[in-house]
């Protein structure tokens, strides 16, 4: 109701602030009998956690997921899966300088106005640390979607853009470079650029492309819960996301119908895939692909003018350990949210017909 | 559950196929005591309906909304508002040629596979005619949001793009031209282009920009139901939409944090508005603006190769009266869906604090 | 949200006041491919409608259901099933005498206070006429639950109580008498008593027992949505219902565990069925049985003291055509609500395990 | 969806098995700015926990609630309130004798059939231990409902029934005796009887009456979410509950309308309160009162015949520390569930009219 749950059947509800005792969540609606690979979950957590490489924040957060229920003898039991992720490295003092100050382009001002209080400890609930819960739940959703292959990668950093279609990049390259770009040459350029930006005390935006393969026909619910509408919501709910496009996307607006229509092969597959694997809100079996736009991180290491809660003009400067570019660490989050959407629709689709 | 309802508190549930007896819906959760201006609702319906101008489909559908409950003596009573829109112009015969054929880039194939049946009468539930119910409900939501001003306009058709910011266009121009472009000169070019495309028996895509003004601070719910995430879902749920971006959008990915951050004025307003009126998923009082990408209409008046339900290759050609470009008629739909999102969050926000 | 929808997957949303233009509803989530027997639906409507016999209200309401969508060529298509029931016999003048008066033990006072307005036309939304929509939807749910047998009957009228267990009565007798009692001798006594009460201008309460047979094991969801909890809510949501008990019910509170425990037979069936077919909130395959308590109808043909909206003491007397005892007509409503609960859980249970 | 959440706005989602690492839950939708009295929460937990007196189970479970989020500086922040209750006293070995055996009138059989697995450790998710989370959340709901007074008490144990109306008993007596009966003399009889039953290795059922005072007019939502329907569901969702009646309840079925109607006083209050404080599903400001029926606890210390998972007849005997009668400990659970229902409706009612 108040925005902390996601999904209809395979449902994730999360809680937790960046500097409270712990974050956590409940997965309700996961069917019984699913073998859970805890190592695979841990691996996803590692992909998201801070401090993995020289181009991301150097904060140390172990981000270990502790499951409290719903799994017995290695399998889901059908009861809700409760889990917590402890905040071991709270360092509240790092944030004391922003206690009464609204950081520009952060959620400080809007939260304060909406709720009438200020949890000034590092963003509180609006912190991107909350996405750790999504990755944990998404890792279980991935295991439910056994044959489906979800692959996200960085396709642009600032103006450096990978000018290749999803079918032309090299998925094997993604985890080989700290940027998580699906192209070796471009990854090197991007890494260098991010390091330069960090030296400036600045940040930069970027894009992530996600490709979903081996998806069965029929996932997604018309009318309001179209597959791509739910994917779009899922992506836009990730911190710093400013846009979403799937298939031909914004470029497709420039095309004519005679160019854009995906003609069928005899087996129901299509010759082109401008539809991005979704027609009428329902998967058609072709690869689903979409782009997600991330703005530059708002916390910069430069002096900025801002206001405090009294409305007085003050200056502030970011401190501590922040990401100069969010996209490398957002790759597993994009995948996790995709998995949550698909798992939900996969279950729901079992009820579509007698 | 199965995708036919939208909203949490101010909730719309719709039913109806393009060629059944009627479409309709129920609005549940509209507070009692709201004076209803039926003429204003009718006016919105007129903006969406076919046959308004020479550049849209020439089908004749009166699209009159009949309210069956929930309004008594000109005011809402707090009980659900049921309404129907009759399909007076069904012309089923127009569609007989597609009975066993899957139209390229339509929902025919995916619906058939998902539900195991085919309602071949003009798209059935996947028809854009369904959006009439959204416009009716949105018109009531607009009345609930008294002071909020929602303005959508066409900002591109094919490669013709209005290169002006939302603050530089002329809202008064929008209803003066059949394209609903917010710029007189560009409107003339766009109209000419759409006519040319129609002559070719082809279609073309386009974009709509929507601006929301006078919005109170505090609307939107973290974490999953961020204001822009719900707006994005709402837009992506409209037929033919391929992308959504708000504020700086995809262009914002190329910026640095030091450029992109919206510095505060003393009153909490911001010097720039790259955030697009939303920070941390919550409205900050600045204008909300976003772009919606529409693909070219799939039904073209040219011969296309396709397959039938037996998997045989056949040829087909669109018949009847279709839109060469969907964006002019989609303007009121974009506004209606925005209104539904905002009405819901406006009510929900009353419960945010004691 | 605001109480007009029921169910999670197989979901009914209703609208309509007793004296508006029409009532109606939408069934969302019914799987595609279900053959719909319209005559069977009509037959259920006939069982509920007024004027069937000399002991129920003599109002004439045809109560014909018109389906507007979701059914094509005799089968459900998977899209929402919209329907309307017109109010052909509105007779608003009958109710003018209560326009400013709060009828004792009716919803007039509470609706007025809650919503700040008064729809004085025969109860408005609180009228039992709303249950016609439940019967229509329940009739479809029954068709979905092919092999499940739901049988309700009147088990008491005032102090006249059928002292027989559900397994000892004669289901074939139910539709043979206007009381819908499952025992011929008792039916005659009850009918005579209701006639006497009506002559007095008075009303009387009663009970309905419902038995559900051939139910698969596994329906119902722990923890909050236990099968009997949802059945209880369903029954208590029917106008005039004051209580619900299942299995051993209130009598079971007097028993010892050693008497009450249902010992197993080898095949998993039980020797006794004090559990009422539900253990831990989940059906165990034994017959489900429960009792529903209905208060005497509040509208009596005797002069009563009451107050008007100014808080002045006034007198009023019921007019028109009301039921002296509600239970005979409530039998199909109890069955319909049972069917809605079971259909929903039946679908949901398909997702319980891999 | 799958039954682990309760409420629409003020929403509780729970997880946890009796013998897993911890139970817990998330409260979503509690408004910001509520001062939280942790001692009051702890006091409620103490009322529910085992081992409080000689007539309840002697298990030792500290049942301390640890809040992980949503409360900052003693007040709610508007973000979800996550909490855990550790299972410190798991004693799995106590349950090894039932590993392959279905205990009569327990949920063992139905869970196994529904989910295809068996969590034999003390009932798993079906254990009444789950109600600890309800009491924790209910304690917060109580604090939100500042002026509302919710009082539950034991009104019968076996055939020993307190023959007094809710207005005639002594609320101050309730916490003075281990039975939680609102009458000193009857409490002594009940206590003696429960001790006798325990000596027999047997168990017995009972009833709880709950009274809600100082409730504002207008809570509850027609049609399906009537106040008493939601209360009924809440109560029936508690382990071992077999029935629910409010106001005149089952006795009311024997009355005539002329006796049962609650005539108004000039201020809108009523001379009698057979309606039980609810008319048309909405609170009318009079005290709400209802009875809840609990069956005898299924685990008895006598030898019983049963079957194992192979369908073989075996004998078993309860071991360990169980309650001979569940009602004394269920009193705070009944209050907690009432508070959850009322808090939800109290918030929702703020949106009923403009």
Describe this structure in words.
- Chains A, B, C, D: Keywords: Amino-acid biosynthesis, Aromatic amino acid biosynthesis, FAD, Flavoprotein, FMN, Lyase, NADP.
- Chains A, B, C, D: GO terms for molecular function: chorismate synthase activity; FMN binding.
- Chains A, B, C, D: Its EC number is 4.2.3.5.
- Four copies of one chain form a homotetramer.
- Chain A is α+β, with helices and mostly antiparallel strands.
- Chain A has one domain: Chorismate synthase AroC (Chorismate synthase, AroC fold).
- Chain A is built from seven helices and 17 strands.
- Chain A has helices at residues 38-48, 108-115, 131-144, 184-199, 227-236, 257-260, 327-349, and strands at 5-6, 11-15, 22-28, 65-67, 71-72, 75-76, 81-86, 101-102, 149-157, 160-161, 206-213, 241-246, 278-279, 282-283, 288-294, 303-308, 313-317.
- In chain A, strands 1-2-3-7-4 form a five-stranded antiparallel sheet, with helices on one face. In chain A, strands 10-9-11-15-12 form a five-stranded antiparallel sheet. A three-stranded antiparallel sheet of chain A has the order 8-16-17, with no helix packed on it.
- In chain A, a hairpin with a 4-residue loop joins strand 1 (5-6) and strand 2 (11-15).
- In chain A, helix 1 runs antiparallel to helix 3 (131-144) and helix 3 (131-144) packs across helix 7.
- The longest helix of chain A is centred in the last third of the chain and has 23 residues, at 327-349.
- The two termini of chain A are 31 Å apart.
- Chains B and C meet through strand 2, strand 3 and strand 7 of B and strand 2, strand 3 and strand 7 of C.
- Strand 12 of chain C pairs antiparallel with strand 12 of chain D.
């Amino acid at each position: 109701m108040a925005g902390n749950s996601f999904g209809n059947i395979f449902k994730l509800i999360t809680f937790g602030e960046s500097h409270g005792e712990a974050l956590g969540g409940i997965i309700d609606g996961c069917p019984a009998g699913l073998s859970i690979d805890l190592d695979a979950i841990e691996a996803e957590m590692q992909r998201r956690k801070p401090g993995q490489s020289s181009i991301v924040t150097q904060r140390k957060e172990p981000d270990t997921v502790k499951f409290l229920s719903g799994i017995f003898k290695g399998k889901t039991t059908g009861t809700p899966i409760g889990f917590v992720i402890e905040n071991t490295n709270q360092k509240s003092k790092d944030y004391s300088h922003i206690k009464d100050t609204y950081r520009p382009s952060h959620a400080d001002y809007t939260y304060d106005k909406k709720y009438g209080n200020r949890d000034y400890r590092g963003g509180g609930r609006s912190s991107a640390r909350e996405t750790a819960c999504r990755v944990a739940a998404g890792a279980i959703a991935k295991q439910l979607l056994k044959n489906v292959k979800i692959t996200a990668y960085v396709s642009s950093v600032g103006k450096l853009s990978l000018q290749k279609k999803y079918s032309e990049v090299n998925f094997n390259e993604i985890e080989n470079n700290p940027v998580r770009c699906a192209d070796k040459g471009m990854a090197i350029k991007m890494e260098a650029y991010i390091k330069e930006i960090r030296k400036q005390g600045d940040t930069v935006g970027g894009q992530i492309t996600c490709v979903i393969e081996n998806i069965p026909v029929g996932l997604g619910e018309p009318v309001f819960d179209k597959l791509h509408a739910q994917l779009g919501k899922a992506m836009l709910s990730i911190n710093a996301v400013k846009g979403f496009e799937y298939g031909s996307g914004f470029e497709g607006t420039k095309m004519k119908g005679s160019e854009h229509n995906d003609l069928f092969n005899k087996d129901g597959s299509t010759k082109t895939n401008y539809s991005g694997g979704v027609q009428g809100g329902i998967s058609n079996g072709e690869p689903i692909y979409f782009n997600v736009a991330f703005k530059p991180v708002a916390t910069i290491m430069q002096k900025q003018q801002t206001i405090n809660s009294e409305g007085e003009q003050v200056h502030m400067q970011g401190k501590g350990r922040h990401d100069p570019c969010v996209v490398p660490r957002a790759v597993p989050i994009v995948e996790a949210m995709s998995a949550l959407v698909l798992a939900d629709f996969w279950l729901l689709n079992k009820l579509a017909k007698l």
